[in-house]
Write a structure and sequence with these properties.
By secondary structure, the protein is an alpha/beta fold. The strands form 3 sheets. Strands 3, 4, 5, 6, 7, 10, 11, 12 and 13 form a 9-stranded mixed sheet that branches. It has a two-stranded antiparallel ribbon with strand order 1-2.
Amino acid sequence: METRRLEIFVALVDAGGFKQAAASLFITPPALSQQISRLEKDVGVALIDRTMRPIVPTEAGREFYFRCRRVLEAMQHITQLLDDERSHEFGRVRVGIVPAMMYSTPAKAVRRFIREHPAANVQVCSIATSLLIDELEQGSIDVAVLLTQPDLKDLSSTTLFSEEYLACLPVDHALADQEEISFAELRSERILQGPRVANPAGYDAVVTACMRAGFSPRTLEVMGSYMDHAAMVSAGMGVGFMPESLSDIHPHDVVYRRLVNPSVGLTASISWFERRLDSVGRAFVRHCITELSDLEGLTPTEGES
């Protein structure tokens, strides 16, 4: 957006003379005079009284001067906003993370993004999957990290990563001394799982593994994060599952053991409406796709719908 002649006019009035203004603008006095003449021709009135020393603006020039100052200040503000936009420092992203993942890798990715973009406004909430999907559809949040991919019109979704489950057992369980546990050995156990709507693929994978092992699981649905599930295991409510990335966190009186025959796990995804995102939101989505697909120990998978 061309504002050069306005800047020259303001500099001339502030300096009170062509020579002084030209020096501050790093141009010659004749070039400055020519620019002022062209500006006066454009606006159709005389802006400078050249008979006075130091030069002064005409009555119209004084009003034009004050308006020019406001325009230039506004342009400076707009330029700063655009610079901030380009550097992902201006804007807001509202992120929803399913509770099961709040202690896992997505939360760590959010922390890294905030550290890299300290001026960005990042808001995080953690509520049940069905509510997160409603919030995303209604526009109350901008991005959702889920264990499912919602089927919503114009919604973009990308798979972030997959990882295996470990069996979560009470420390005094008969199987606790084994390094590996097969699903057939869980035949008599009560299986703790979150609601199917929160993680349809993971839920069904556990049920299928049990069925292939020759039994129909006795499932107790429990709410909350994986840490809440582990606490239920500690309380003797049954046997649960823990993502491998959380294996360093040990609630009281539980142990984790590798699952075999078969192994099962979870798949995390990120979903957003492209048209609703500002530069910070787009930068956050790119950050999550890059960071979470490259995490050591996870199986990177990627695809869009």
